[in-house]
Amino acid sequence: MNNISISLVTYGLNEKKNIPKFLYWAENFLKKISYDYEIIFFDDGSTDNSYGLLCLLKKKYKNLKIIKNKKNFRPA
Questions:
Q1: Does the pLDDT value for residue 2 go beyond 70?
Q2: CB under 8 Å to 40, separation ≥6 — which residues?
Q3: Of the residues 11, 16, 22, 27, which has the fewest C-beta atoms closer than 10 A?
Q4: What is the tally of helices (H) and strands (E) in the chain?
Q5: In whole angstroms, how far apart are CA 30 and each of 11, 15, 52, 54, 57?
Q6: Contact 23, 56 (CB under 8 A)
Q7: Each residue of 7-65: pLDDT tens digit?
């Protein structure tokens, strides 16, 4: 196992149903690579309470960092 720091950065828009599965996969994958990792999740203005779910899951996934955009910033 490497002694490197890894940041996995991702975003989602109304992905509430996919977030638990993704975080489970991401954490298991990252644990195989490094002891020092973080998952940075940008909630890009979701309206399906993805942010609320992420906040609840933060208790389980200690290496999860959440950033919430108030509106969606997809390119025009």
A1: no
A2: 7, 8, 9, 10, 65, 67
A3: 22
A4: 2, 3
A5: 17, 21, 24, 18, 17
A6: no
A7: 999 999 999 999 999 999 999 999 999 999 999 999 999 999 999 999 999 999 999 99
**Reduced to 3 states, what is the DSSP secondary structure of residue 58?**
coil
Tokens of 66: 């959440």
Amino acid letter, residue 71 = K
pTM of the model: 0.89
Q: How long a stretch of residues is the chain?
A: 76
Distances from the Cα of 29 to the Cα of 8, 10, 35, angstroms = 11, 15, 11
Greatest alpha-carbon span in the chain: 42
